[in-house]
Task: structure prediction
Amino acid sequence: MDFDLSEEQRLLKESIDGLLTDAYDFDARKKYMKEKGGWSRAVWGKLAEQGLLGLPFAEADGGFGAGAVETMIVMEALGRALVLEPYLATVVISGGFLRHGGSAAQKAQYLPGIIDGSKTFAFAQLEKNSRYDLADVSTTAKKKGAGWTIDGEKFVVLNGENADTLIVTARTRGGQRDRTGVGAFLVPADAKGVTRKGYPTQDGLHAADITLTGVEVGADAAIGDPDNGLALIERVVDEARTAMCAEAVGAMDESLKMTVEYLKTRKQFGVAIGSFQTLQHRAADMFVALEQARSMSMFATMAVDFDNAKDRATAVAAAKVQIGKSGKYIGQQSIQLHGGIGMTQEVKIGHYFKRLTMIENTFGDTDYHLRRVTEGGGLV
Amino acid sequence: MDLAFSKEEMAFREEVRAFFRDNVPPDTRRKMVEGRHLSKDEMVAWWRILNKKGWGVTHWPKEYGGTGWSSVQHYIFNEELQMHPAPAPLAFGVSMVGPVIYTFGNEQQKKRYLPRIANVEDWWCQGFSEPGSGSDLASLKTRAERKGDKYIINGQKTWTTLAQHADMIFCLCRTDNNAKKQMGISFIVFSMKSKGVTVRPIQTIDGGHEVNEVFLDDVEVPVENLIGEENKGWDYAKFLLGNERTGIARVGVSKERLRRIRDLASKVESGGKPIIQDQGFREKLAACEIELKALELTQLRVVADEGKHGKGKPNPASSVLKIKGSEIQQTTTELLMEVIGPFAAPYDEHGDDGSNEAMDWTAQIAPSYFNNRKVSIYGGSNEIQRNIITKAVLGL
Result:
């Protein structure tokens, strides 16, 4: 039992914090947002240079063989700086699919591009009616010769507008919500039959709605077993949720810091508003919410590698519940304690609130995950 | 960062668990499970079993009978004790006055009091709160006037937990009226059998008798009963209150209660099926379990931090423990109320002093709910805890 970072982990934290302190103040972020696709290729290149894009991959595949704790460290830093670049979509999610399900050939083909920063990915999963159910898939993948033909519509695909490659969930057989017959397929974003409608999201990121019409891919497009891919999808999405928990902790931590700083400096009635006990206790409750969230982010980080998928899922769901609740509380109260200035686009605090809000509604909201915990038989 | 218990720690947990399984008197355990009170004899008997094993004062320095365990071992011990469940060692002696005596007392006091605390030869109670001094403890008025080789003590203490059982009291008394309020207080111990000590029971809203008023009228106490220096008592009180930072979360207590809720909710029916199958109830239960898991991890962070870096600089997360720990304890008693529903109503007039075996187990659920409102009030109310976070952590 040891919650301290190892020497290597501490260096990693210093490295990512240092990079973002230099490259990612609030004004810089505004500029990156206006670049093509809504994020900075230059920053992405720096992340690659420092080895951060290769972090979780095996050394044999050109990576650093780092684990869940290292991803937590990076995601927390990204959350702190409100980073726009597609680390989650590319390294965590798509990298996760390739690490856990990819063949040697797929790894050889795709990982170098992720690690050197030349290629980005997107995970096309959400459908019109699927909401948070990963098994609810209407998009079809029909056998054609040795390969597959994919048809369907996907929505709010993060980094979908810019990605070079999509990982698409599609049904090879069975009914819309059957747990079997779902696979994950690698689809070049410029393949014939792929149309992408990109747009900014509420939190400043970019996503796309994607239509796949008769898209033909080879036999080597399927990651793992295309008829039984749900276990892989669930594992990777649990890793994504865990990473988002850490990102949220970074955002919450920074929100609270900024809010406390504001309470110390903003004066009304001739005194700093932080001298009012009502506001002090609100800030104290935000601190409690933050520490509980931090603990559960660590819990998910520990659980995400559990061998037992049910235990893993229940633990990650529990973390997502805590992060959802804490994120909402800290996000809302940060705005409230900032008063009118918190309502403006020009001040950073509202942007944390927006990111935290979107995190809650990605890959299952608080109610959804609370239900998952009950289905898992609870935590005690 | 390694978030799993080590093999040695797991083995230690097994050892502790096996000892509780084999040595806690079954009746004591059953009464704890059912939320009943225990008699003084039952508690003392169990504590002497613990002390015989060498686990009566686990966190004391080895020279006074402690174990030399790591922070994590202490955590495991307490969690297993609370989950079994079995009564925790009497805090007033073991966690409060004991450490003050071995830290600030003289050799004679250590020899005289410490072994008797460990074996509960003396039952100690705490004379801190007064009718006019709750959260503002330093405003206390009880006076100790020096006359020759004696203090003459006059005043009133209140909320004195289990004073009806007590042999000894440690008391904060004002010894200098002219000093700033924190500076004129002394830490004095004396026998509850002294002339001039009157204990009057306070009946709490659950009908129980846990707390008392203690009246002190011209109580004569030898000056040798002063612990440490005169007028330094406030420092010792702060030391005492800061000593048990992590135990306050009572994670094991809440874990055990959540298991009981699951168990009862599987037996009690509503609409033709067990309450545990009601989705609304399940979600409330799960929400509480998640809060508790988060608290457990927060506590472990504090414990691991203390183990590695010492207790000198408290981990900021430690102030979360009291607030969340008390809220969760209260939620668990609310959930029990929900399970038992209309059958919470019957009240057993004979009360429960540990001897009323005729009392139905359901009769203790509402009193336990009422009684647990105390946990967010005592030990520094949750509002005081927020003040502490505000000042010590956030710097506001």
About this structure: The domain at 124-234 of chain B is CATH 2.40.110.10 (Butyryl-CoA Dehydrogenase, subunit A; domain 2).
